[in-house]
Amino acid sequence: MEKSKVLIIGGTGYIGKRLVKASLSLGHETYLLKRPENSLDIDKLQLLMSFKEQGAKLVRASLDDHESLVNALKQVDVVISAVAGVPHRGHYILQQLKLIDAIKEAGNIKRFLPSEFGTDVARMEHVSGPGKEMWHDKIAVRKAIEEAKIPFTYISSNCFAGYMLAGLCQFPAIEPHMDSVVLYGDGNVKGESYEMQSGVNHYYHVWFEGCLTNFEIEENGVEACQLYPEIKYTTAHEYLKRYL
Ligand SMILES: NC(=O)c1ccc[n+]([C@@H]2O[C@H](COP(=O)([O-])OP(=O)(O)OC[C@H]3O[C@@H](n4cnc5c(N)ncnc54)[C@H](OP(=O)(O)O)[C@@H]3O)[C@@H](O)[C@H]2O)c1
To answer: Where is the NmrA-like domain positioned along the sequence (predicted)?
Structure first.
C-alpha cells in the first residue's frame, strides 16, 4: 500500500483518536495538530504524548492561526479533520473554512477529508428544525472545498451503529432498553431540551423519513458491498446480540 503523510486535526476526539490509531497501524507517517488548549487538558495531553510514543509527530498549530496552519500543512500530503460537530459536545464545523483557506495557500495537499463521519449531508439539505445547523454547516464546508477545487473524500457512515442502532431510538440511550421501548407520539409532543429536540429530529429524518435509504444509487455510484467485497459485514441482528 502506498504510504502517505497524514495530518489529523481533532486527534484526541471520539472519532479522531480512532483515526490516529488506524493511520499509525497502517504505517502512514502520522502528524497530529496540537492546539494550545491541549496543553491545559491533562487527558488530551497524555493521549497526545502516548500517540507521540507510538510514532506520531505533534505539530503545534491552531485553526485560529493561519500561518501555523499553513506551516503544518506543508509537511504532509493528506489532511483528515475530525473536529467536533455534535451540538451538545461543541460544534466547530465552520472553523474548517479557515483550514480550507490554509490548504489553498499551502497548495500541496493531495486529499482532504473534512469532519463528516455521520449522515450523508447531501441528502439532508431539506432538513429543518433543531440540530439542522450541523448538517447545514457540513454542506457549507463541502461547498467551500469544491469551489476551491481541493481533492476530497467525504466519509458518511450513515448513522454510526454504536450511537444510533444500539439505542433503539430511545434518545439519549446508547444501549438497548431490555424491558420496554417508548413509541414516539403523533408528532406534536414537545421535546424538553434543545439537545433532546435535535436528537429526535435526527431520528425523524433518518429512521422515519428514510432520507438516507429511500433513494436509488446514482449512475456512477457503487453499493458498498461491491466496492469493498473484502470486508465482512455485520448484520443488525449480530450486532445487537453483543448486548444480551
Ligand atoms: N460522536 C459521534 O457519535 C458521531 C457520530 C457520527 C458523526 N460524528 C461526527 O464526527 C466528527 C467528530 O465528532 P466527535 O464526536 O469525534 O467530536 P469530539 O470528540 O466532541 O471532538 C473532536 C475534536 O474537536 C476538536 N475541537 C474542540 N474544540 C475545538 C476548537 N475550539 N477548535 C478546533 N477544534 C476543536 C478537539 O480537537 P483536539 O484533539 O485538538 O483537542 C476534539 O478532540 C463530527 O463531524 C461529528 O459530527 C460524530
So the answer is: 2-175
> What are the pLDDT digits (tens) for 60-93?
999 999 999 999 999 999 999 999 987 666 679 9
pTM value is: 0.90
Helix H or strand E encompassing 9: strand 5-9
Ranking 65-69, 113-117, 155-159, 194-198 by mean pLDDT, the lowest is 194-198
pLDDT band at 205 (very low <50, low <70, confident <90, very high): confident
- Tell which atom from ligand 1 comes closest to the C-alpha of 89: 20
- For residue 150, the CA-to-ligand 1 centroid distance in Å is 22
The structural architecture, per CATH, of the domain 1-158 is 3-Layer(aba) Sandwich (3.40)
Q: Is 34 in the pocket of ligand 1 (CB under 6 A)?
A: no
Backbone angles phi, psi at 62, to 5 degrees: -145, 145
Q: Domain map of the chain by residue range?
A: 1-158, 160-244
- C-beta 15 within 6 A of ligand 1: yes
Q: Grid cell 488506524 — which residue?
A: 22
Categorize the per-residue pLDDT at 141 as very low, low, confident or very high, splitting at 50, 70 and 90.
very high
Q: How many CB atoms lie within 10 A of CB 10?
A: 25
Give Dmax over CA atoms of the chain in angstroms: 56
What is the C-alpha separation between 163 and 174, in angstroms, rounded? 6
Q: Please state, in angstroms and rounded to a whole number, the distance separating the CA atoms of residues 21 and 51.
A: 8
Ligand 1: does its nearest atom lie under 6 Å from the Cβ of 16?
A: yes
Give the count of beta carbons closer than 10 Å to the beta carbon of residue 107.
Answer: 9
